[in-house]
Recover the amino acids of this structure.
């Protein structure tokens, strides 16, 4: 496993995306334990994309425009739903004290999982990303891709947990006023809506 892969994978994981925003929003709304569940769910949601890439199934998104568009707009709808939930004063991602720990960790992890599996761009990304770091002289390419994928997932889980724990800490120490909570709700909602629009405008 090359240093180039580790550095590139870390940079990819650190760049804020839908999973990061969801984990941070969960940390702000429900605390540390919930943010770990969010990180776990988002990481688990990578598995289908990785398996699709490893076994060549992601190529279907290149050959079937209908399949790509169907999954894409399901993802767009879900992102807009999360934006609405974040914006609502008593939604599942509401950042207010009376909502703390109201959602189960299973529901939180489930939403994080759905967030990633409904993004067809993720499968296409892994299809383009992983093969660059395969060493033909090292043997079984599928096994190498699975090992690289495992490392990528561990990085994702670790980084997301750090993001979530930091968000939970900031909730208690910084975002204590209702006015601050209201602005944070709007910011999270705008982030999800922005990701939804970006996904909607993306091409196969």
């Amino acid at each position: 496993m090359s240093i180039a892969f580790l550095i590139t994978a870390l940079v990819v994981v650190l760049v804020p995306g839908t999973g990061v925003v969801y984990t941070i929003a969960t940390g702000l709304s429900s605390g540390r334990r919930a943010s770990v569940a969010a990180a776990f769910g988002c990481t688990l949601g990578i598995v289908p994309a990785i398996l699709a890439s490893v076994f060549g199934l992601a190529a279907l998104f290149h050959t079937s425009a209908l399949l790509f568009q169907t999954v894409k707009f399901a993802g767009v709808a879900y992102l807009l739903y999360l934006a609405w939930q974040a914006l609502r004063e008593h939604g599942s991602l509401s950042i207010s004290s009376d909502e703390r720990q109201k959602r189960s960790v299973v529901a939180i992890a489930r939403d994080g999982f759905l967030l990633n599996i409904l993004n067809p761009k993720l499968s296409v990304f892994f299809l383009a990303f992983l093969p660059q770091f395969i060493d033909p002289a090292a043997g079984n390419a599928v096994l190498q891709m699975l090992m690289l994928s495992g490392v990528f997932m561990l990085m994702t889980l670790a980084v997301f947990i750090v993001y979530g724990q930091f968000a939970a800490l900031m909730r208690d120490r910084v975002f204590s006023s209702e006015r601050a909570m209201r602005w944070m709700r709007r910011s999270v909602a705008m982030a999800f809506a922005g990701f939804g629009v970006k996904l909607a405008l993306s091409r196969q």
